[in-house]
Design goal:
The complex is a heterodimer of chains A (450) and B (295). Chain A is α/β, with parallel strands linked by helices and 450 residues long. Chain A has two domains: 158 residues, Periplasmic binding protein-like II (D-Maltodextrin-Binding Protein, domain 2, 3-Layer(aba) Sandwich); 213 residues, Periplasmic binding protein-like II (D-Maltodextrin-Binding Protein, domain 2, 3-Layer(aba) Sandwich), CATH 3.40.190. Helices cover 45% and strands 12% of the residues of chain A. In chain A, helix 9 crosses helix 10 and helix 16 runs antiparallel to helix 17. The longest helix of chain A is centred in the first third of the chain and has 41 residues. The two termini of chain B are 33 Å apart. Chain B has a two-stranded antiparallel sheet with strand order 1-2. With 295 residues, chain B is an all-alpha fold. Chain B has one domain: MetI-like fold, CATH 1.10.3720.10. In chain B, helix 10 packs antiparallel against helix 13. The chains are: A alpha/beta (450), B mainly alpha (295). At the A-B interface, helix 3 and helix 16 of A face helix 5 and helix 12 of B.
Chain lengths: 450, 295
């Protein structure tokens, strides 16, 4: 027994000493780790930051100096490349394995880039990050959805939506009530008819009720306002559903039957974004960034406003056509934590409204809620409509190969845009376009999704 | 001079002088041309690595209806451009081949569009040809109800752009023809005058035959230039409406830098390369046969 007790005593002694040793070791390791972390955080870090807006050069420099002041060990190099060349150059950087640590990412390319494994998976960095409560969760999730729905690969910094622009002077002159959230498509088309005017009686329309062509930001808002879809997301094929077709019919009839909107070729000598501010059309739907263009182009005496796109007849749950611009982090960044810290900074805390073209909506809630965003000294008075749109469920038509099947930019006379314009200009019938387009456009989808 | 007696001269010295050009040609021309050929057998979006697909790009091109429309447009543009530029260039050259006061200013004015940015030319002609507010449409609508939609009517768009290109470049060919006209010996023309030939006879029987080397030179370069039509198409029609003014060069641009289908774009570029090559060889054959200098 003694022995046992003795043994137990010796064992207890050994146990005590072992415990002390373990505690000591843990303490040493903890301090060593803490010291190491401290050293690591003081290590010089250089981040490459690529953006696409040359007008923001000075503002970016200010952001950098503020961030560097808060993080003295960090150096940020900003490269600005205009949007026309941005994607070619950044793709070449990617090819050479030299992607910048933090860079602008479009909604249109997020799916392709994430699926190719070029972007840093932000999930572990975002987990437990309380600062993200300052960002609209719907927009963070929107980016996740575009990227395939499994992981976060980008943080949004600006949202654009597609409101209905309307000329208040023309509405007042025609005695038509301004658009409101209860407007139906009938209210809209009737208003467009009343707002179509031949001022000099020469048989030619001088003022149209509405202006649009096959452009994505002109068509999709109506399709989504009726909760329709141009593509079947399950099969990834061009397959406009009945609600989308109804939206297209309504628009086509405005040109072909009501003559309350011009054929696109009538306006071909003008920049499409100048038709409304030049007073040729009383209403127009396009991206919210055109608020800036309207302010610059329209006669200062012209009174204009914005409203939600009227809800379609086939739904109680209309969707808003809207999408974000993001910052992404390169998969091969050597400093993911600091890159994430900086990405969050340039998507939110580090920004002021000076960073945003009028009409772009900050995704950083304190900024959107600020007085600077709701500046009532400038038109439109209804700027809060953008916040309403930002809070609504959103949809886009972005897919891989989008510019090709949709017909965008230098290819805007082709793709779906080309078909819509052909119908509106009278070189194809609506039925012909609906019958021919899937065969042509699906070739793009087959290439990317089969 | 005996080169071997020059102290610094060595046998390899000439090579040193032409080495920069050879390097430049290799790096910026020949290697990219060869790389494009290899790329034309791949599928590549600039992201990731090119994937070898064999003749799939060529097969896709030659089994797509719109590709044949694009080839047809390319030839139509080429025809309008070659004949338009040559006729207008020669006419202008004959008109300015006179010694009168201020002729230099006329020549400079005619040459001005050549050195003007193609995009600027496109924008200005867009305004001129535009419906509703375009100066030509406003003028024509005094005589007709609606002026043609020059740039958005599928039957007119390509021809309108080609004519603008002819207008822009004719001054350049005028200078070439002018040089040719001024090298024709005056005694041949004087002899024809003495023989009683009128101006038209002198032009067709003396001037034109003696100008044939210049004509064939201009023909060769107009054929090659006729395929370089990107800028005006980009600034005036963007290949539309619905491929109506899309040409091979514009299609290469669209596929390479808008759709990022680099492999397919390279295959279209090679189709264009073969077409230009064949036409140039044919042209030289014809030149050998018919365009011997008369002197």
């Amino acid at each position: 027994m003694k022995i046992i007790i003795l043994t137990n005593g010796i064992k207890g002694e050994i146990m005590k000493k072992s415990l002390l040793l373990v505690v000591l070791l843990i303490c040493i390791m903890f301090f060593a780790f803490a010291q190491g972390e401290n050293e690591a955080s003081n290590e010089a870090v250089t981040l490459e930051w690529w953006t696409w807006d040359a007008d923001l050069k000075d503002i970016n420099a200010k952001i950098i100096s503020e961030f560097e002041a808060e993080n003295p060990n960090v150096t940020i190099n900003n490269t600005i490349i205009s949007t026309t060349e941005y994607w070619t150059k950044i793709k070449i950087q990617s090819q050479q394995n030299k992607l910048p640590d933090v860079f602008c990412m479009s909604s249109g390319y997020l799916e392709e880039w994430s699926s190719l494994g070029l972007l840093y998976n932000l999930d572990p960095l975002m987990e437990g990050d309380t600062s993200l409560k300052n960002f609209y969760q719907t927009l963070l999730d929107g980016g996740k959805e575009i990227a395939g729905g499994e992981h976060y690969y980008a943080i949004p910094f600006a949202l654009v939506t597609t409101p209905l622009f309307f000329n208040k002077d023309y509405f007042d002159a025609a005695g038509v009530e301004y658009p409101n959230s209860n407007w139906t498509w009938d209210d809209f088309t009737n208003a467009a008819k009343k707002l179509t005017v031949d001022n000099d009686g020469d048989g030619k329309t001088d003022q149209y009720g509405f202006w649009f062509y096959g452009r994505y930001a002109h068509i999709e808002p109506w399709v989504y306002a009726n909760d329709g879809n141009l593509i079947n997301r399950k099969t990834m094929r061009f397959e406009p559903d009945a609600k989308a077709i109804k939206a297209l019919e309504m628009l086509v009839n405005m040109v072909k039957v009501d003559h309350s909107a011009p054929m696109p070729q009538e306006m071909s000598a003008l920049r499409q974004q100048d038709v409304f501010p030049n007073g040729i059309a009383a209403m127009w739907v396009d991206g919210s960034w055109n608020i800036d263009n309207n302010r610059l182009t329209a006669d200062p005496s012209m009174r204009w406003g914005i409203a939600m796109v009227p809800k379609g007849p086939d739904t109680q749950e209309p969707k808003v056509h809207g999408w974000s611009d993001f910052y992404a982090i390169a998969k091969n960044t050597k400093n993911p934590e600091m890159a994430w810290k900086f990405a969050k900074y340039v998507a939110g805390e580090g920004l002021t409204m000076d960073n945003y073209l009028a009409g772009k909506i900050p995704t950083y809630i304190p900024l959107t809620e600020s007085e600077a965003f709701s500046d009532t000294s400038k038109q439109p008075d209804e700027i809060s409509v953008l916040k309403d749109q930002a809070a609504s469920p959103m949809r886009t038509s972005f897919t891989k190969g989008w510019s090709e099947w949709r017909g965008y930019g230098a290819a805007e006379s082709l793709g779906f845009n080309g078909y819509v314009d052909a119908v509106l200009n009278g070189t194809k019938t609506f039925e012909e376009a609906l019958e021919e387009s899937p065969e042509v456009l699906d070739k793009v989808f087959v290439r990317y999704y089969n | 001079m005996n080169l071997n007696k020059v102290i610094w001269y060595k046998k390899y010295t000439p090579w040193l002088f032409i080495l920069p050009t050879i390097f430049g040609l290799l790096i910026f021309r020949l290697i990219p041309i060869f790389a494009a050929l290899v790329l034309s057998f791949t599928r590549w979006s600039l992201l990731g690595s090119p994937k070898w697909v064999g003749f799939a790009n060529y097969l896709e091109a030659f089994t797509t209806k719109s590709f044949f429309e694009i080839i047809g447009n390319t030839f139509e543009f080429s025809l309008i451009y070659v004949f338009g530029s040559m006729i207008l260039g020669l006419t202008l050259a004959v008109l300015v081949n006179v010694k009168i006061k201020g002729i230099g200013a006329f020549r400079a004015i005619i040459y001005l569009p050549v050195v003007t940015s193609a995009v600027a030319v496109g924008i200005v002609w867009n305004w001129i040809l535009g419906p509703r507010f375009g100066i030509l449409s406003v003028f024509l609508e005094k005589f007709m109800e609606t002026a043609p939609y020059w740039l958005t009517d599928p039957t007119l768009a390509l021809r309108s752009v080609a004519i603008v290109q002819v207008w822009k470049m004719s001054g350049y060919y005028m200078i070439l023809f002018l040089a040719g006209l001024q090298s024709i010996p005056r005694d041949a023309l004087e002899a024809a005058t003495v023989d009683g030939a009128n101006s038209i006879q002198k032009f067709f029987r003396v001037t034109l035959p003696m100008l044939s080397p210049t004509v064939f030179f201009v023909l060769t370069i107009t054929i090659i230039d006729s395929f370089k039509n990107f800028e005006l198409i980009y600034s005036m029609t963007k290949g539309g409406p619905q491929n109506a003014s899309n040409t091979l060069v514009y299609d290469v641009y669209l596929n390479a830098f808008v759709h990022y289908r680099v492999g397919y774009a390279a295959s279209v570029a090679y189709v264009l390369f073969v077409m230009v090559g064949v036409l140039t060889i044919l042209n030289f054959q014809v030149r050998r046969r018919w365009a011997q200098p008369l002197n």
